[in-house]
Every structure is written in structure tokens, then in C-alpha cells.
Amino acid sequence: MKRSTVEIWVGVFVLAGVAALVMLATRVGNLSTGGGTASYEVEARFDNIGGLTQKAPVTMAGVRVGRVTDIHIDRDDYSAVVVMAIDGQHDNLPKDTSAAILTAGLLGAQFVGLEAGGDDRFLKGGDEIKLTQSAIQLEQLIGQMIFGAASGENKEE
Asked: Is the pTM of this model over 0.85?
């Protein structure tokens, strides 16, 4: 009798540990959902998305307001189309909101940053964010800096 109760308690603790590990994995892996409210999808077009991936966060003022749900190429103009699911509690984003692809830290993961505009009308499902800024590529910046330094040396001669 005593042995079976010990085995039951061990089983309960093992299950609790597995549940805690699953919860931790979803939080760390950015797989957890938002606050349970319905979301709406908007899209934005970029010339270059860098290393942006699906499930990347969409933030406004540093607060996560959604996630990237799909990334594909437009067959007509060959731009990258980023589809974002915005949490339903953030249904007051102005129509002239701008989107930029930003990097967390110097070499961190990329995410979409939104900046609110001043329009009285709000974004709704299916709308497109027109004002976008593509990802800044570190390699291009370094190349421009090296090229600029090299051309500056030639001017002095």
C-alpha cells in the first residue's frame, strides 16, 4: 500500500515536470499564442526582408502585437510579401501605420516593427501597409564603408 502511493506521487511529479518543460519550450521557441483574442491579417511589401522568418514577432513600441504568418514573393513585381496576424486587441492601428524590418541587437533575430501614423481610419483584415522600410544588410553597410574610405583616400592625392 505504501509503495503504490509513493509510485503515484512520483508519477504526478514526473507529469508536472514534463508539463513545465513543454510550457518552457513553447515560450522560448516563440510558439505560444497571444492573449486568446481573435487576430486579423495585414500584409506589407518589402524590397528585402533579410533573415525575417515566419513566426517572427511584430512589435509596436517594443510590445509584441502580432506574429509573421506567411512570407512569399509577389509574382508581378518580385517584392517580398509579409503577412502578419495582429492580435485583435490592437484593432486601433491607423491606416498609415509604417512597417520596418528591424534587428534585435547587433546580430540578433529580425522582427517587424510597426510605427503608428495619424490617420483617423484603422487597419482591418486584408489591408496592406503601404509605408515600409526593408531590412538593413550589414554586409552592404560594411562594403559602403570600405568603398567610401577607399574613395576618400584617392581624393587626397
From this structure: no
